[in-house]
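Sequence, please.
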């Protein structure tokens, strides 16, 4: 590749990024206006306005904790369970626990929770939330003997492998045109770095090539202005390019650094409002911006009318006496010099003419009612019910509030599922990197489990052997009272199930396996967590194996003895019946001879 080829390559990528900005220009304006309104930043360069009644800020602060409020917990299980108790099953379970614990070690410092919260806020505010994974490690050079010649040679040892999670701002992300995420050809991340960092990012070979081609060294910028660099991940060539935004200079070109099957170091962006076949998102605030503007108009009118709603009046007579009386504190007696003249005019009420405020009060009352109606319309559009916001009416029954809570949380549940899917896809990437980039020594240190030699095969392709998921409701810290009610319902249903099925299993022991399978299917309707669900699956498998073993072994000695006794009784009953019939026949023959 020549210097001219590098210049054309950089210019082509900068053009693609600018085309992406044009294609998503309308959404970028929407997202910027929404962020300006949320922050109340009147100095922001984005087109939009700030609101005195900031309903957007209130909605975001209400929905974000309801959608995500705790670190997701990985749930890794065998994709197809092998026989329980077999060596293959034991190795598979060990590897699953190792991967699971390694992911938990990478996330237990709270860093993932912070980045996931940022993703959730960007998704609900701007309409697109992105989170990516970076792999980092400590590389040490040590001297070692060449196994072939025995001569000393430098060897690199990789230690301290770790994963870094980063929420990418919607402003600093661009992607290629596509209708679906799997068809996206490239993604780009923008970095703002100081000039010294730019010098360190330059690949020496590319720098030499550009200097040979006659390209001059780029002058150092004045002041503390950072340089924007685009990190482009090209899926077609599986290469990563670092390109200066303003000049198009290619700083470095790297082959696939992660080795992920989907190449990109991120899951699909979380976009709450999209249409099938369209990758351009929509800022959720734009859906009810007209209502927010109406709410702001009503608020401004209330503000102006309230500012003019003052107690004012006119009076005649001695100005000093009445003014002193108006400014007096509580329980204060004021001497008046010309009280007789005031009495002749009809008293204090007749001496003062008050400014009329009745009309303004009536208008204010209607404006406040209109503002509440507009708020209700916004909550109707966004799906944020009073119950979700922690508000309720004392006149409503518990059943009515429960129904409102169920229906009011439907849209919230949809958003929760989106965040869970993003966390699940993120854990898939983590599992692939842990299995391919982490050394066995690091995995054993993180998990505290000794890896058997047979585990290496499973670690080479984790997605072929394991189902990687997020533990149910781990991203949302559920209400304790509701969880207690669900567990009580589960225990009562379990007791009823086994009391009904116990006679069937006692009469036919081989039915223990199917009955346990039915119970496992019933238990999946409850969010029991990984340990309880794994225990129920083990119980079902053990019951099936016990039933099969009992069927193969045949009846027990006690059952055989009881069977023999039953047959003896049957034979004895049959013998007595035959003797009775023989006696009847002999009696009939005797009667026939006598007759």
């Amino acid at each position: 590749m020549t210097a001219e080829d590098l210049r054309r390559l950089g210019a082509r990528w900068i053009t693609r990024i600018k085309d992406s900005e044009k294609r998503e220009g309308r959404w970028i304006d929407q997202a910027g206006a929404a962020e300006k309104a949320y922050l109340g930043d009147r100095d922001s360069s984005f087109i939009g306005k700030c609101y005195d009644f900031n309903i957007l800020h209130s909605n975001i602060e209400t929905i974000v904790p309801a959608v995500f409020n705790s670190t997701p917990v990985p749930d890794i299980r065998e994709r197809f369970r092998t026989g329980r108790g077999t060596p293959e099953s034991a190795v598979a379970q060990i590897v699953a626990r190792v991967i699971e614990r390694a992911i938990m070690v990478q996330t237990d410092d709270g860093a993932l929770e912070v980045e996931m919260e940022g993703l959730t806020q960007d998704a609900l505010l701007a309409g697109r939330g992105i989170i990516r994974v970076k792999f980092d490690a400590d590389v040490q050079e040590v001297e070692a003997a060449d196994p072939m010649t025995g001569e000393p040679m430098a060897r690199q040892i990789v230690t301290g492998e770790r994963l870094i999670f980063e929420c990418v701002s919607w402003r600093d992300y661009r992607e290629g045109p596509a209708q679906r995420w799997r068809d996206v050809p490239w993604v780009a991340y923008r970095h703002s770095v100081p000039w010294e960092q730019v010098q360190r990012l330059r690949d020496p070979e590319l720098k030499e090539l550009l200097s040979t081609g006659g390209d001059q060294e780029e002058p150092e910028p004045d002041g503390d202005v950072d340089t924007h660099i685009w990190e482009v991940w090209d899926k077609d060539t599986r290469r990563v390019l670092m390109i200066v935004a303003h000049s198009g200079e290619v700083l470095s070109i790297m082959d696939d650094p992660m080795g992920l099957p989907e190449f990109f170091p991120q899951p699909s962006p979380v976009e709450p409002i999209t249409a099938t076949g369209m990758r351009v998102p929509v800022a959720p605030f734009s859906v009810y911006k007209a209502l927010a503007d109406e709410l702001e108009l009503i608020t401004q009118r209330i503000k102006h009318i309230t500012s003019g709603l003052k107690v004012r009046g006119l009076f005649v007579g001695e100005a000093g006496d009445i003014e002193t009386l108006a400014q007096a504190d509580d329980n204060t007696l004021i001497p008046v010099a010309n009280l007789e003249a005031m009495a002749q005019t009809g008293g204090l009420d007749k001496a003062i003419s008050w400014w009329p405020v009745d009309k303004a009060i009536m208008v204010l009352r209607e404006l406040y009612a209109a503002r509440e109606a507009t708020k209700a319309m916004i909550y109707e559009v966004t799906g944020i019910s009073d119950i979700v916001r922690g508000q309720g009416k004392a006149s409503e029954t518990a059943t009515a509030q429960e129904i409102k809570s169920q229906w009011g949380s439907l849209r919230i549940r949809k958003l929760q599922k989106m965040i869970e899917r993003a966390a699940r896809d993120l854990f898939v990437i983590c599992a692939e990197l842990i299995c391919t980039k982490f050394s066995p020594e690091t995995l054993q240190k993180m998990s505290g489990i000794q890896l058997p030699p047979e585990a290496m095969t499973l670690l080479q392709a984790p997605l072929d052997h394991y189902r990687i998921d997020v533990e149910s409701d781990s991203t949302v810290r559920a209400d304790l009272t509701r969880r207690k009610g669900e567990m009580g319902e589960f225990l009562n249903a379990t007791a009823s199930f086994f009391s009904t099925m116990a006679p069937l299993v006692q009469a036919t022991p081989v039915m223990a396996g199917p009955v346990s399978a039915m119970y496992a299917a019933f238990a999946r309707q409850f969010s029991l967590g990984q340990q309880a669900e794994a225990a129920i699956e083990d119980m079902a498998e053990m019951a099936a194996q016990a039933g099969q073993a009992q069927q193969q072994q045949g009846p027990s000695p006690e059952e055989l003895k009881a069977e023999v006794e039953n047959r003896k009784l049957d034979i004895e009953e049959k013998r007595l019946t035959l003797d009775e019939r023989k006696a009847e026949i002999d009696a009939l023959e005797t009667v026939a001879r006598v007759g």
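The longest strand covers residues 152-168.
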